Amino acid sequence: xxxxxxxxxxxAAGAQYIGGKLRSGTSGRSHDIVNPATGETVHTYExxxxxxxxxxxxxxxxxxxxxxxxxxxxxxxxxxxxxxVLAEQADDFAYAESLQCGKPIKLSTEFDVPGTVDNTAFxxxxxxxxxxxxxGEYDGDHTSYVRREAIGVVxxxxxxxxxxxxxxxxxxxxxxxxxxxxxKPAEITPLTSLMFAQAATEAGIPDGVINIVTGAGKDAGEHxxxxxxxxxxxxxxSTAVGKRVAEIATATVKRLHLELGGKAPFLVFDDADLEAAxxxxxxxxxxxxxxxxxxxxxxxxxxxxxxxxVQGVASLMETVRLGxxxxxxxxxxxxxxxxxxxxxxxxxxxxxxYATVVTGGEAPGxxxxxxxxxxPTLVAGAAQDSEIVxxxxxxxxxxxxxxxxDDEGIxxxxxxxxxxxxxxxxxxxxxxxxxxxxxxxxxxxxNDHIPIISEMPHGGYKASGFGKDMSVYSFExxxxxxxxMYDNTAVARKDWHRTIFxxx
Length: 504
Ligand code: NAD
Description:
CATH superfamily of the largest domain: Aldehyde Dehydrogenase, Chain A, domain 1
CATH architecture of the largest domain: 3-Layer(aba) Sandwich
Largest sheet: 7 strands, mixed
Bound molecules: nicotinamide-adenine-dinucleotide
Number of domains: 2
């Protein structure tokens, strides 16, 4: 199973990280972390309950004055050390991420971990560039300026698909801006979030700035969102849970950032480089076994290229190697759990009644039979309004549909409730440019699908949520701006007092 530390030893003290220390949850309920590649239990820990959330929020509250009062340079230096500690521990992070998620080790090693180190280094730098934009004498009698301030204790909730990166995306902009945070990872994948917080402590980030509570959504999650001392909720997860989180956050008048589901279109115009589009569709649909909110899920292909695209994608999908996540040659790991695998299989089985499964559509047997594996799957011939085209599947399943005119292709691309990401494939600058303007999504790639970078914002339109992760745009979520106004006249009776005192 690959090399690494012993998870049971490392987390023997518990799976809650509060005030700079690991401790056990007090909910009275335990949880098994299961390796989805084998079905074996990796570790069992006590879930957090409301009392643990209260303790974590109290620790974050206590740490807030010191951390928000530190200079940008002090925060930045600590975060640069944090990036260095993460880089030193890269192998441990990759091991733990692959163990708890079943991700191929090459994905953890080449994407999840270096992406997180880069994000940390980016926010270490960005911590020194927080600014208010306006300063001046706008009415002649006053000087105005804008202060950008940290807001307080942030409560964040993350999903299981990229546990390390999601923890980083939530924690880094919040703490770079001077806030303190309590993060609840998904209870099935807490390991790398805990390790991330431990690495911050090793780097000298003060106790209580970053706290992790690992509990169930209904229990620890809802308590965190409704907590009166938490000023903001940042949530990444499904649209259904996001709606519930929004209800609770609204009832306590919290600032809210929602990163929700996606159903990304992959729009291939008839002048596209077919080979590039085929490679892009397979890689874009299968990354992280399709459990990626931006994954290519709906390929719309202009009629002249349609048959060749279907054939090319099906053949390439059949070459993808499923296997042990710790084997460096494995391309595709299992889904996160057997339940998720069965859910994905359910979508495909129901689609057989109205569409064609061109390739895949089954779990492999043999050595992989105990894991939550599912073969790369291509579905054709489904109607635009069918379940498989409209619903988020979150598995290695791509649906392909033809279109005739550019107008039709763009309309189909926009025809779901989601709007997280999309791609357009064309050699014509004007056609691709039109797609980038007219597709309603937070990210539109041209002739590629998936890459992300720390400098650029990530976030949805429509039912995919609002607010941005990564980049300096995320500071809009994690700071508040204050207008400060000084009188410059030094007179007792100001001009505007006429509205009260008349002409006396
Ligand atoms: P999920 O919504 O089931 O769970 C997400 C988190 O919310 C988990 O930590 C869970 O414990 C918690 N939760 C569940 N019920 C809760 C409640 N009632 N109150 C508070 N918290 C609660 O999502 P998931 O299955 O873990 O992740 C997959 C989903 O996440 C997909 O829909 C995917 O598109 C989305 N996602 C979106 C992005 C993005 O950037 N937009 C990124 C990654 C994943």
